[in-house]
């Protein structure tokens, strides 16, 4: 699973210097952090709506699709700030074995 995130992270890095005419990710980097964060917010809202719809309909297809959009735009935001997906995976790994309460106590 993390191979996918690592590969996508590499593509997003390459797109930082790509032509915005030919790449959606390069367009986002070119427009800047505020535009990227606007997309993260939009996709978070669409994910919430899809989750509520899935609860009612029992069909989770749209939820999976919107969550992929949310993860993707979150990764673009990280990349824009020079953070690799591995840093998030490392943080999740650090939390293995901690209870939720222990994790909360470990926060800065
Ligand atoms: N995983 C994705 C991915 N997921 C979603 N999207 C794009 O994210 C956008 C989702 O935004 P919306 O649903 O709001 O659709 P929209 O109306 O087109 O968006 P806006 O014009 O409002 O910004 C769509 O344009 C999708 O195509 C993605 N675009 C790219 N990737 C990956 O990034 C790689 C590099 O992409 P390019 O930079 O375009 O080559 C691709 O090969 C993929 O692996």
UniProtKB/TrEMBL annotation:
Its EC number is 3.6.1.31. GO terms for cellular component: cytoplasm. Keywords: Amino-acid biosynthesis, ATP-binding, Cytoplasm, Histidine biosynthesis, Hydrolase, Nucleotide-binding. Pathway: Amino-acid biosynthesis; L-histidine biosynthesis; L-histidine from 5-phospho-alpha-D-ribose 1-diphosphate: step 2/9. It is an enzyme of class 3 (hydrolase). It is found in: Cytoplasm. It holds the Pfam family PRA-PH. It catalyses: 1-(5-phospho-beta-D-ribosyl)-ATP + H2O = 1-(5-phospho-beta-D-ribosyl)-5'-AMP + diphosphate + H(+). It comes from the Bacteria. One of its GO terms (molecular function) is phosphoribosyl-ATP diphosphatase activity. InterPro entries: HisE (IPR008179), PRib-ATP_PPHydrolase-like (IPR021130). GO terms for biological process: L-histidine biosynthetic process. Its main location: cytoplasm. Belongs to the PRA-PH family. NCBIfam families: histidine_hisI (TIGR03188), PRK00400.1-3 (NF001611). PANTHER family: HISTIDINE BIOSYNTHESIS BIFUNCTIONAL PROTEIN, HISTIDINE BIOSYNTHESIS BIFUNCTIONAL PROTEIN HISIE. This is Phosphoribosyl-ATP pyrophosphatase. It comes from Oceanospirillum multiglobuliferum. The lineage of its organism: Bacteria, Pseudomonadati, Pseudomonadota, Gammaproteobacteria, Oceanospirillales. The gene is hisE.
């Amino acid at each position: 699973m993390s191979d996918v995130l690592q590969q996508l992270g590499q593509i997003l890095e390459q797109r930082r210097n790509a032509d915005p005419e030919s790449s959606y990710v390069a367009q986002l980097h070119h427009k800047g952090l505020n535009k990227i964060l606007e997309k993260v917010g939009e996709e978070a809202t669409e994910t919430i709506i899809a989750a509520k719809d899935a609860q009612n309909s029992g069909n989770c297809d749209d939820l999976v699709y919107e969550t992929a959009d949310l993860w993707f735009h979150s990764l673009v935001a990280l990349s824009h700030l020079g953070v690799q997906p591995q840093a998030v995976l490392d943080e999740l790994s650090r939390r293995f074995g901690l209870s939720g309460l222990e994790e909360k106590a470990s926060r800065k």
